[in-house]
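Minutes, project check-in
Item: structure for the 221-residue chain
Input as provided by the requester:
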Amino acid sequence: MEIEVIDPGLRPYGEVWDLQHKLFGGMVDRKRRREVIEKEYLILVEHNPVVTLGKHAKEMNMLRDEDTLRRMGVDCFHIERGGDVTYHGPGQLVAYPILDLEAHHLGVKDYVRLLEESVIQTIADYGIKGERVEGASGVWIGKGTPGERKICALGVKCSRFCTMHGLALNVNTDLRGFSLINPCGFIDKGVTSMQRERGEEIDFEDVKNRFRKKILNLLGY
C-alpha cells in the first residue's frame, strides 16, 4: 500500500472537510465490499480562522455565539470527530490521516497514541518537551505544574477501522483565537504554541516536513 501526502496550503475548513469525506467514504465503501485498500492519505493543511464542535461539544464552551463569530470572520462547523470545541487558524499545522488501521495492526487507542507520539517527536527537535496528560488527549507542556498548557489538540473519527480528522499543532498560531472558546472544554488549562515556547517565529515548512517524516516512519512508511 502507498500513502499520498496532500499539501494544499492555507484552505477554508469546509473545503478540506469535503475532501476528507470523499477519501474516507471511498475507503469505507471498499472495506464494506471487502476490496483491497491500495492507497492511504495524509492531508497537511492550515485553515482560515474556524471553530469546530465535536459530537460531544457543549454549547457552554462557546464564549461567542455562532452569528457573532461569523461576523468576526470566524467560521463554525459541527463535525463528527470526538472531543469538544477547538479553534483552527493560520500558523497551525493540521494533519488529517485517512488510514486503514487494520492494515497497520492498530486499535483506536494505539492510533491516538501514535498521533501524539508523532507530535512529541516533532517538537522535541526544537527542544520542546511534549507529554501526555491522563484523561486528556493531545500533547501538553508543563505536565503536572500550575502552568500546564496544551500545544496540540486531537480528535478522530473511525468507521470500519478507517480514520478521518486528526490533530492540530500550534506552530506560529495567534493564540488570541482560543479566547473565543474553552479549548477542548477546559477552563483551567492554558494553550501554547511552538513560537511562544521558543520565543521566536518557527519555520513552518520545516515543522511540516519533520512531522511528515515522523508520522510516516511511525506508520511504517
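Outcome recorded: The longest helix spans residues 13-32.
No further action items on this chain.
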